[in-house]
Amino acid sequence: MTLVWRRLWTRSLHTRCSSSSSSSSTSSGRRRVNGVDLYYEQTGGGKHALLLLPGALGSTKTDFGPQLKSLNKERFTVVGWDPRGYGQSRPPDRDFPPDFFERDAKDAVDLMKTLGFNKFSLLGWSDGGITALIAAARNPDRINKLIVWGANSFVTKDDLKLYNQVRDVSRWSAKMRRPMEEVYGAQAFAQTWEGWVDGIAQFAQRSEGSICRELLPLIRCSTLVVHGEKDPMVPSFHPQYLLKNIKTSRVCIAEMSAPVPADAPAAPTAPAAPTAPLAGSISDPPTGISVHGFSERILETLVHFHVMTLRGGFFLWVGSAPVLSNLAVSMSSRYDSMPLSTLVMGDPSNTAATSLAQRLAKRTKKQVFVSYSLPVTDSRLSLMVENRIKAELELHPELF
């Protein structure tokens, strides 16, 4: 779960995008699910069904305009929904009983059933990420894949301090309040937000502040946990806990950040956050250049990977600190089945960069530059790093 300023700043960006991104291929309506009428929007006709789960007080309108517009409609069928008491799934008014996350998870899965989807993937952020974790744990045979960002499985006392600092919405800037007030009205928004703060505080009274931590080992689907590297409001132990306790998970550290609004209140400070939650890369289509970044903890070392595409090749930096060392280049040759490779700079006795560049050049048939800035004292680390690169290459070949 993100803190409110990241939630609302990113949400305000989404709202502005969605206002001009309506698609004639998008259908909407309400379905009766578990005694309430749930609003949903659906677009695309692909075989892979995705359900988008919004954050606290969020809705399809406020949270997922860009995704409904831009996700590949030939590959995916995308469904956005408003949880009960949020957005256009009112009445009833939103309440926060002790099981409200469990209730949302059941509503989400049952909505997809009524829409005819027996198996689907979940993309959830903030509270929607928590809901998605629970849904995946409770329905392992139905959930294909899972992506969560800004999600946590427990609440700490420090979390509660931050939530209480933003309890009073009258202290928020007008820009921060406006998207929610347009949906709920000023009074209902203030009351619902206070209800959310009280609702989330309930979990701090549970053993270890658990929201759903005991359910994490039940998740069997492939899971991507996204986290903002410079986010001071969501400590890194939250995604690392998910990584450790979801056997099929990996973490992507997103480095893109959204600017802080000029009129945002001084407390709390707005954290860095990706403006496009599903992306970890920056692209410039006119020039064909893209920069793709991802990170993962391997053998207790947090390893960062950055790929920059070039015409006919790519540059790969691997390291745990911002150092350029052991730079190698490799390219295919008509005279040899193995690509030619050489060390441009660094320690000649360290062959990690040269070997990796040569293997990647052979695999991709491209010119490859590699800067490998990790210790080579443990052969397991080098092997696991290379396997992680290969996995990313298979997942996103267009970014290499």
Strand numbers in spatial order across the main sheet: 1-2-4-3-5-6-7-8
- Strand portion, in percent? 25-35%
Helix content: 25-40%
| Integer average pLDDT | 84
Shape: elongated
Secondary-structure element string? HEEEHHEHEHEHHHEHEEEEEEEHEH
Distance between the termini: 32 Å
Spatial extent as radius of gyration: 23 Å
Topology:
Elements: H1 4-18, E1 27-33, E2 36-43, E3 48-53, H2 60-63, H3 65-70, E4 76-81, H4 100-114, E5 120-125, H5 127-138, E6 143-149, H6 157-165, H7 174-184, H8 186-201, E7 222-228, H9 237-245, E8 249-254, E9 281-284, E10 289-298, E11 301-310, E12 313-319, E13 327-333, E14 336-345, H10 352-364, E15 367-373, H11 379-395
Parallel strand pairs: 3-4, 3-5, 5-6, 6-7, 7-8, 12-15
Antiparallel strand pairs: 1-2, 2-4, 9-10, 10-11, 11-12, 13-14, 13-15
Helix pairs in contact: 1-7, 4-5, 7-8
Written account of the structure:
The chain has 400 residues and is α/β, with parallel strands linked by helices. Helices cover 32% and strands 27% of the residues. The protein has 11 helices and 15 strands. It has helices at residues 4-18, 60-63, 65-70, 100-114, 127-138, 157-165, 174-184, 186-201, 237-245, 352-364, 379-395; strands at residues 27-33, 36-43, 48-53, 76-81, 120-125, 143-149, 222-228, 249-254, 281-284, 289-298, 301-310, 313-319, 327-333, 336-345, 367-373. It has an 8-stranded mixed beta sheet with strand order 1-2-4-3-5-6-7-8. Helix 1 (4-18) packs across helix 7 (174-184), helix 4 crosses helix 5 and helix 7 (174-184) packs across helix 8. The radius of gyration is 23 Å and the shape is elongated.
